[in-house]
Each structure stands twice: as C-alpha cells, then as structure tokens.
Design brief:
9 helices; 13% strand
Length: 206
Amino acid sequence: MDFSSKLLENAVQEIALLPGIGKRTALRLALHLLKQPKENTHLLSDSLKALRDGVIFCSSCHNLSDSTLCEICSSPKRDKKLLCVVEDIRDVMAIESTGQFQGIYHVLGGIISPMEGVGPQDLNITSLVNKAKEGSVHEVIFALSATMEADTTNFYIYKLLSPYQIKTSTIARGIPVGDELEYTDEVTLGRSILARIPFESSITKS
C-alpha cells in the first residue's frame, strides 16, 4: 500500500494495531477523520488521551474507574455484603444492564488458563480472599462464563473461600455452555442471577 503522505501512513499503521482492524479499514477510518472538521478529530484524540491517562482500577473491586473507588463500590445503595465475581469489566457492564443485581463486584482480570499461561497468581484472587478474611462479605456469587476454564477458576476460588463462613453460589445455567457472559441477552442473564444456586450443587451436577 503506497501512501502519498507519511503522516497518513503513520496514522494508518497505528489504527491498524487495534484488534479486528486491518490496514484497509484503518485507511478508511483515517480518511474519514480527515474529512471531518478538525474540532471533531481533536475531540476524539483528546478523549482517547484522557482515557489512557485518567482511567484507573478501583482499589476495591478492580473495575475501571475515574477515582480510587468506582461508583458502584462507593454507592450507599449497594449491598456491600453481596459480592459478584466476574472475569472482566465487560461482564460488569453486562450484569449492570439487567438491573437485577444490587450488590458489588470483584473483577478477576481473567480466568485460570494453563494453555495460555495464566495462573492464579496472575488474577485478582488474593484481594478476594482478603475480603473473606475480613468478614465483610456474606455471599459470593460466581458469575463467570460457562467454559471449562471458568469452572476451574470457580472451583479454585471456592476451595480458598471454604475455610470462611461465606455462602457461595453460582448463576443458573440459563447460559449455554461455552458462551461468554457479555454476549448473553439481558433477560437470560438477569434471570440467571436471580435464580442462582449454591455452588456445591453445581459441583454435584457437573
């Protein structure tokens, strides 16, 4: 692909680094930005810079936040004794969209996957166990995707929490096996949370 402008070429190369975007799509996006008023392009670049420089991880749940504590953890309307364990922030957004959960979250930042070199030490598991030790949580809901790796992660955390007087449950399997939480429709996901079952029962059935 030949470019008449080095600046255009540099922009295309950077845009093409984004997931799911090839060089042709990157070129189309770059040319689109050139057709827009400068103010619009500057707004985009400024918002991306603010995103990268300003967004941090919540010190409590590890969700993305603009401040030390995210809006969910700091909300007085939330049940701090009810904690939902999810894989990443996309799952928080999916569950929040159902309007059926009023507790708080704990974002693991992934799931245990030896094939991909991800072990328990790479996830936010220690801070979850510390919450159990402190006695501030009465129920932990496992809301990971219905995959073998997720089930392994659930069981690993369940064993770590077993010494503490904490109720553990898992979302009902209204979600097809192998499906990721973020792609589940809101009604199914909401019902799965409300119809959650004790984690021990899920072990027996699996």
